[in-house]
């Protein structure tokens, strides 16, 4: 076998990443639902013929981190069932215990053949706005089994030898709300795979299959070496932590425990001691746990490295089957995207005790899922909408948290108000930074968001699935917690109905839903914050004069810093806390 030169390796590696990125652009541009074409709730990647991840776009951590596990499971299923993949075939699957997340995330896989030889797989995963189930949008807060969450699709050929299987498509669309959007998004996912296939074949024509396979092996080995080197630069340690999920059905709350052992160039993450799976949809398939774990690790130990199958090789993850972090069939898993956020939190909390300058305080800790849909009484047309709402990112060593951002496992875009109002019977009334929500600290937590809209239809069902309503995002090293989230409905008669973090309610014309997302935790002693930064926050209406004095020991007079009074107040406050 010839040895490929390093320049060629790097050229092909970059080409693979850009093919994945271009797949994502095509998917977004061709999609119908605002959730994909505006929020970009989709992810694209390329796998070699052995099912190893070789390149991915910068998309959704929950999708991407679960995809290697999901692709391996899908290929095993295909082999077990005796299915034969041929040129022009396309596989669809959303079974979470195979694909790795929840039913809304549909994985589309297309094998790429060159002159009859299998050379790779192009894959994407996109959150489809509805897959049936008990509520519009399909993600409920109270499902007790996966059958209540929608249509379950095992790996199946949705396209066979280049032709859509109309029988499968008709069955699929009969089980979902907003079928016009769903079929548009399905075709967009297929189009993205077709584009990825086209560009991969162009690479093969230029370099040949032997060189391409050699490059695949090289980039995976190189990523493994870089990851192991990054681990070796860290001190060996053992650390552990626990954090909690709230409003989890009959159980009330559930604990996620983690123990991290780093030795040399390997790291072990053990979730033994976490709660057994619960009677609510926050149970995580193993794919979700892998995704959240590798996201947190990569951001801490190797944030600048490209990620592929090589990154996973020094990482060992233990998640006992039948627990909230590795649920068994038929446990409901629709809200496992919230569990993904908590896994990141608990792993960050553990790592903060041994790598304090590399880890932020807790972010808002939720995707703040909002789902709404109904039936037009005149036409009988069903409609459904889904989005996540941004929150505050935690303060970090040397930097404030980010205001109003989709944090950690979300990584989606904002859904423009105009796009929603154009297509759905809702009218937005507020969309703004939530003042006073970021935890005080030397580096303060990011502020959350207030987002509200009124229903213009006669009736609809609203579902919120969130977290951090009862337990605030924690601060680090003296930083204060961020404000907890609040979700509520202002009825058309003015009555206010507070919602739990996971709840479905019926809305009528004129009712207003208000989402107030949590702020991030603060990092470091608030009395050490630069006084002029406190004044800037005040001038930007993020805090009040009272907050400045009470939390930061900063005195503001007529919008300006009173330096003498601030020095005196901080001296007095420090003396009382010793």
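Q: What amino acid sequence fits the structure above?
A:
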């Amino acid at each position: 076998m010839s040895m490929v030169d390093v320049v060629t390796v790097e050229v092909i590696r970059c080409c693979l990443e850009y093919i994945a990125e271009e797949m994502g652009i095509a998917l977004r541009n061709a999609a119908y639902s605002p959730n994909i074409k505006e929020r970009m709730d989709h992810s694209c990647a390329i796998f070699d013929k052995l099912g190893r991840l070789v390149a991915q776009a910068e998309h959704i951590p929950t999708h991407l981190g679960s995809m290697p596990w999901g692709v391996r499971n899908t290929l095993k299923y295909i082999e077990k069932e005796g299915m034969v993949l041929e040129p022009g075939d396309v596989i669809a699957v959303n079974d979470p215990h195979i694909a790795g997340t929840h039913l809304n995330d549909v994985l589309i896989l297309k094998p790429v053949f060159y002159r009859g030889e299998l050379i790779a797989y192009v894959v994407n995963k996109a959150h489809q706005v509805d897959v049936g189930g008990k509520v519009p949008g399909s993600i409920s807060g109270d499902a007790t089994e996966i059958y209540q969450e929608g249509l379950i699709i095992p790996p199946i050929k949705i396209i066979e030898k280049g032709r859509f299987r109309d029988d499968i498509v008709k069955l699929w669309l009969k089980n979902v709300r907003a079928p016009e959007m769903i079929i548009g998004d399905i075709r967009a996912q297929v189009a993205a795979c077709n584009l990825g296939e086209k560009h991969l074949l162009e690479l093969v024509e230029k370099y040949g299959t032997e060189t391409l396979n050699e490059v695949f092996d090289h980039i995976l080995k190189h990523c493994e070496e870089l990851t192991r080197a990054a681990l070796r630069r860290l001190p060996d340690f053992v650390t552990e932590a626990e954090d909690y999920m709230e409003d989890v059905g009959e159980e009330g709350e559930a604990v996620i425990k983690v123990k991290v052992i780093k030795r040399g160039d390997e790291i072990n993450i053990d979730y033994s001691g976490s709660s057994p799976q619960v009677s609510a949809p926050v149970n995580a398939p193993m794919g979700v746990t892998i995704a959240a774990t590798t996201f947190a690790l990569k951001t801490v130990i190797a944030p600048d490295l490209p990620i592929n199958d090589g990154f996973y090789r020094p990482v060992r993850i233990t998640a006992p089957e039948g627990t909230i972090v590795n649920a068994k069939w038929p446990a409901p898993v629709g809200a496992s995207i919230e569990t993904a956020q908590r896994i990141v939190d608990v792993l960050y909390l553990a790592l903060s005790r041994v790598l304090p300058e590399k880890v932020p305080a807790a972010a808002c800790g939720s995707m703040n899922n909002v789902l709404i849909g109904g039936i037009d009484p005149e036409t009988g047309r069903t409609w459904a909408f889904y989005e996540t709402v941004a929150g505050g990112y935690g303060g970090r060593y040397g930097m404030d948290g980010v205001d109003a951002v989709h944090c950690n496992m979300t990584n989606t875009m904002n859904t423009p108000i105009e796009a929603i109002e154009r297509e759905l019977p809702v009218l937005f009334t507020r969309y703004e930074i939530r003042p006073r929500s970021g935890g005080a600290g030397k580096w303060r937590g990011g502020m959350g968001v207030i987002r509200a809209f009124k229903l213009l239809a006669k009736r609809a069902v609203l579902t919120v699935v969130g977290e951090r309503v009862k337990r605030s995002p924690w601060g680090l090293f003296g930083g204060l917690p961020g404000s907890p989230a609040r979700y509520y409905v202002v009825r058309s008669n003015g009555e206010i109905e507070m919602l739990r973090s996971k709840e479905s309610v019926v809305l009528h014309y004129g009712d207003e839903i208000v989402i107030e997302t949590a702020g991030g935790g603060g990092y470091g002693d608030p009395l050490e914050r630069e006084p002029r930064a406190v004044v800037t926050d005040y001038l930007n209406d993020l805090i009040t004069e009272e907050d400045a004095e009470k939390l930061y020991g900063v005195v503001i007079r007529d919008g300006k810093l009173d330096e003498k009074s601030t020095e005196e107040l901080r001296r007095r406050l420090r003396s009382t806390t010793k």
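Q: And what stands out in the fold?
A: The longest strand covers residues 117-127.
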